[in-house]
Amino acid sequence: MNKRILHILCLSLILISITACKHEKKSNDIITKITPKPKVPSGPQKMSEFKYEKTIEWMGSTYTIQIHRFADKDLSIVSDEDGRKYYDNRFQVKILRKDGSSFYERTLTKADFIEIADNQYAKKGALLGFMFDRNEGNKLYFGASIGSPDPKSDEYVPLDITIDNMGNMHIRKATELDTPSEQNEKTKTEIELTEEEGV
After folding, report:
1. CA dihedral in degrees (7, 13, 17, 20; nearest 10)?
2. Angle at 39 between CA 35 and CA 40, to 5 degrees
3. Which of 86, 91, 76, 72 shows the shortest CA–CA distance to 142?
4. What is the CATH number of domain 50-196?
5. Do 155 and 148 touch, CB atoms closer than 8 A?
6. Which H/E stretch holds residue 190?
């Protein structure tokens, strides 16, 4: 009887060792997770809204510059390189005197820069930026841009804007290089040019 039990135990140990030594078959299949495609909004998107404020010393007094960018659904729809649609922006630009009264106030859209921007961005691009740069002499210098509304894109047309102490705004492409004589011609008003021509 003891031999029989011993014999069964030995067989059991052999079976256990055989199954323990058995190797699992390795698979060459690679399992990866498929990331879902981002959902494309069905309607136009809004670019982010922002507000900017800076107090400066200019022409012997203190001024506060306020700039507010916001998407406007009343403007024409614009699109990026992939055809995604966006609402274009408006910019409210205010320059306030020390007592809070308004020295300069204007709402700007892409239409204000359409003659300066190239055709591609004039049609499909958005008014992206309008920021204060510096004050020098009797002028305040700003930079603006018209281009692709895609926040990841770096395609745009840079523009230089000045506002003088009389409240006149002048716009030109930032890439233009002017000689002193060309700069003088550009800053002359239409009235001054017609008077020179004798009209």
Report:
1. 140
2. 135
3. 91
4. 2.40.128.510
5. yes
6. helix 190-196
Residue listed under structure tokens 């961005």:
121
* 178 three-state secondary structure: coil
User: Per residue in 147-178, pLDDT tens?
Assistant: 999 988 888 889 999 999 999 999 998 865 44
Per-residue pLDDT reduced to its tens digit, 18-57: 665 555 556 666 776 777 655 656 789 999 999 999 999 9
Residue 56: in which H helix or E strand, if any?
strand 50-58
E-state strands within 120-155: 126-136, 139-147
3-state secondary structure of 97: strand
Sign for the pseudo-dihedral over CA of 124, 127, 128, 133? positive
Q: Which residues, other chains included, contact 104 with Cβ-Cβ below 8 Å and sequence gap of 6+?
A: 93, 94, 95, 163, 167
62: left (phi over 0), alpha (psi -120 to 50) or beta: beta
How would you class 152 by CB atoms within 10 Å of its CB: exposed for 0-12, middle for 13-18, buried for 19 or more? exposed
Is the Cβ–Cβ distance between 77 and 45 less than 8 Å? no
Sheet with 50-58, side-by-side order of all strands:
50-58, 61-71, 89-97, 102-108
Helix (H, G, I), strand (E, B) or coil at 153: coil
